[in-house]
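> tool_call: predict_assembly(chains=three)
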Amino acid sequence: MSAAGPATVRDALSSGEGLFHPRRLLRFLLNDASGMVGLSLVLLVAICAVFAPYIAPYGPNEGALLEARLPPAWQEGGSTAHLIGTDQLGQDLFSRMIYGSRVSLLVGVLGALMAVAIGVTLGLLAGFYGGWTDTVVTSFTNLLLSIPYLVLVIVIATILGRSLTNVILLFGVTSSPVFIRVTRGEVLRIRRLAYVEAALGLGAGAGRIIPRHILPNIIGPLATLATFEMSAMIFYESGLGFLGLSVPPDVPSWGNMLALGRRFLTIYPWMAIYPGIAIAITTLGINLLGDWLRDTIDPRAEER
Amino acid sequence: MIGVLVLVFFMVRLTGDPVSLILPVTAPIEQREQFREAMGLNRPLLTQFSDFMLGAAQGDLGRSLRLRQPNVGLILQRLPATIELAFAALLFAIVVAVPLGLAGGMNPGTWMDGLARAVGLAGQSVPNYWLGMLLIVFFAVELRWLPSFGRDTLLSLVLPAVSLGFAGMGQLVRLTRSAVLEVRSSDFIRTARSKGLQRSRVSSKHVLPNVAIPIISVLGIQFTYLLGGSVYIEVVFAWPGLGTLLESAIRDSDFPLVQAVTIFISLFAILIHLLTDLLYGVIDPRLRLS
Amino acid sequence: MSRFLKRLTVLVLFSMLAAPLSAQEASGELVVSLSSDPTSLFMPRTADRTAANTAWSLYNSLVWINDDLEIVPALATSWEITDDGTEYVFELRDDVTFHNGEKFTAESVVATWETGMDPSNDYANAFEEADSVEVIDDYTVRITTPEPNATFLTRLATFWGMVPPEYIREVGIDAFAQEPVGTGPFRFVSRAAGDRVVMEANPDYWEEGLPRVERLVYRVIPDASTRLAAIQTGEIDIANRLTFDQVRTLESNDDIELVSYLNDRAYYVGFKNVGAGEGTPLEDRRVRQALNYGTDRFGIIAAIFSGQAEPLASFIVQGNLGYDAEMMQPYPYDPERAMELLAEAGYPDGFQIAMGCPADGYVNINEVCLALQRSLAQIGVEVNVDFRTTNSFWSEPNYGVTGPMYVDSWSSEIGEALPRLQGALIPGNYYNTWEDERFADLIAEIEETVDREARAALYQEMHELMTEDPPFIYLYQPMIFEATTSRVKGYNPRPAEEYFLKSVSVTN
């Protein structure tokens, strides 16, 4: 977004210094307001997830039925003991929201990592070896991409059933095609570069070319992409929860809370409002961070 | 496309046994067997598969187990509702997003631009089904301005279309804004400006056509996304389209219907992509050559 | 010209005849919500209650079950049953026509039976219970059953919606289901899949003064919260399948009337003594008794259902034939007794066991499963709740996907516990997981006992057996909550969530 940032990164790259030198990245980040906002939001959610037991006033499944369906503290009948009210089992909504960040972040982080791992591996294989490996990988990619994403995800979620592992697996696999494509394209491009061709001609194998020449080139775009995929996963995980297809119902997750809140939508709207805000804040934070990352690493990347 | 058929066929067969979900709980085992027989479910999987592929080649996507009707017919009955919703959502997105994006892009740094950026981010971050729920509470239950569910009059289209189109709107605002920024900084605009052309003229003659191309390319993608996203919105608003059809088919493990809807939506998405490509050519003749 | 005149005279005559008959003119429009799109409007294919409720607006059967759950004449004016209980002779009404103008005769009963048995039908078995259907004359028909069948008339009233022979034979079942024709109070106008079914009053309906509304619109709204919103805005007149939590806030709303009644449905935890249940502590009767003592069903009802459910004593629930409140007391909540029994059975420290739960399959079921877990933990039984999507939960015979225990429910639409007893306790049935000859023999006896009093006694015997050596943990019998707009009069749903709209009227 800011015009100055990108140029300096380019300079940094050409001067041979690592792009991911922490101090450097931090400096760029501090210079960008929306990047900062994004970072703070993501940090906020991450802190909630890591320190949930310390932040949340109650356990996620702890509830007194006498205190069921309490409105938020500032509404009539609300209690300061339960800041944003309780659900139909008397469980503290605020605590559940704090704990819910764990599911969302786990799905987002692990899902994205898995997608990157699958994507890079297959993309490298396809791009480097070509031939039938390429054909197989490319058709797998096209196959997954030709079914509208949400439909694919819903159908697979039904098959897999409700568990956290399944949800992570689901997003890891279904999001891998974009990473495969990017990696493969980049490998093909780099292979054609004079110096790589020369290295290949000199007998350098995959073991040398990949870490030396290919990985450094793709890590930037992949990181950006992974950030956006992460926010998408968090977004869609809650969607699955909403349809009753994500983690088991006793696990506090924002999607599950929304699904429950929807049952009482017109009478106890607070049950549905706050988990939605949590989802929105998290995706907003990650998206802002992703925007910043993209602008910084690759200023010419188009809006997707 | 054949890949899609294969994948979908085997994928949906893993979702559970349809007979147990479709027949009444009291149905005795013999009746379940008879039903299986009548529906052709106890033939070898490969025979079922080859029949399915042969049928698909002739445009026959089988029959629904639960509704006992040809799937194509069921889909066509529901299709208009979904297309209507998707178009309305797209229209909403365009009507809000393009002017806002243009205004933002043409006046960077102003409050207009700030608004455009905010709307862009909001669209990306707010879950559409959640928005739908809030809209129902506010506009249907509290204010009673608009219907809360179903497909009745044109009014009943408003809330679902806004919820569904919200994400697309966000993306479009961002896209339009950045496309405008890019075009404005390109050489020919600067030349036109320096030649003393009026601002409004510059924007209508030079900026708009160049901004249109990326917008149209995204509209194609948007439409595909809307087809998927409509599952949630249709469920929230009890909208009688493909989304609710798919959702109930999944719940019942009515797999001929699940696979038919999935395949149909995929086909539809591919078709839309082709259409967008064609549209490109019309708008930008240079692309036709390549 | 003359033909036109003739038709005109017929019309005029008709309207003159009709006028004095319908003292209360059918008027107004009634909008009813459906919680799912009806699978079919052909009776033998109405797999769920929603579809059956909708379809019954179009049809009549030979006999009917009235609001007091008694069997009364409908299209048959009278019937006789032979002494051995296997032959029924029905005298039929001679003044009934189908919506398409066909006359209702004995031949219609034959056609109904024949088309009903088609193996593609969900309820083919309800028609296979008859061996033969013979025309004696135009308005007399004989139906024979292979064995005496205690519930045959009930099955007639529940599934045998009479169809016009010529039309259904001409177009076939599939096409018939698209444009159904019956003799019922309403006739089919149109249907938009997933959206609505529209019907209008049958002007020639044979029951005097019925139906009371001119136009009947069913709207499909799968989601309870959407139904709730729609009744609040007045977009629909009848919203069913709501929860107490949802309706309690409507009490103060003058535009809305609440309807509630006890559902004929038993919620329970099933045990397995076959498959996953073999070799588990559940095989010991004392353990199963202990689990019943250790289940705080009263607490669950108070907490999760705000008290709006009845604790369950056995499968014979309130409102069922043979139910006796005094005799049928639920297991008390007695964790100490439970632990004693566990210790006697050799499990002083309890044990671990898995329990399947159909996530979101029923109202509040997730919470019930979790509450059960907590409750049984108190007596040292550590329950691992295995939440399953409903698809996988019910997709294998004998709940094959879950461990030795599972949560489920069973309803009955005949006012007797028989269907759930048969379904759950007769070995070989699809959802049977508990094999015990004593249960099976007693159920077989109930099936063949035509006399109601005798049957009631057998149900009580069944209750004793089921309490002493419990094949389930008995949980609760829920209340059903519905809401109507205050302009709706005469809406009377029945314990199995059945409702018939012919006598419902609306004021404007």
